[in-house]
Amino acid sequence: MNWDVKYFDKLTPQELYAMIRLRNEVFVVEQNCVFQDADNKDQSCYHLLGWQNENLIAYARLIPPGVIYTKMSIGRVVTSPSVREKGKGKELMKNAIEKLKELFGDQPIQIGAQLYLKKFYESFGFCQTSAIYLEDGIEHIEMILS
Description:
Blueprint: E1 2-7, H1 13-30, E2 46-52, E3 55-63, E4 72-79, H2 88-104, E5 109-114, H3 118-122, E6 127-128, E7 133-135, E8 138-145
Parallel strand pairs: 4-5
Antiparallel strand pairs: 1-2, 2-3, 3-4, 5-8, 6-8, 7-8
């Protein structure tokens, strides 16, 4: 598996298309959730792309402090259904945390997590910091890694 981190304006059209396609495949089609994925935040972020051969199989948006939260953040965390249960999600999160710290220093990371993934994020040291709330019809919680 090969990993790339690129700021939005450095993405090639092919990389951007693969990123949008994977996000749509999981967040819109698989989770049956109609929402505005193109939220005008991608342009201010770095993008972590995990490739297996020519296929994008893992992706996360690396968000600078002040774009969504006052703290830096990780969002749009997604792996292809074709690689689930093979440790690629853990590899993705480990890389996302490391890359965020390289880019912005060793500071807390805040995320909005789908509730069903709470234990997954806790395995990296994230702690729940909010009550459950609905976002696009899906239960979420805020979490922070100090």
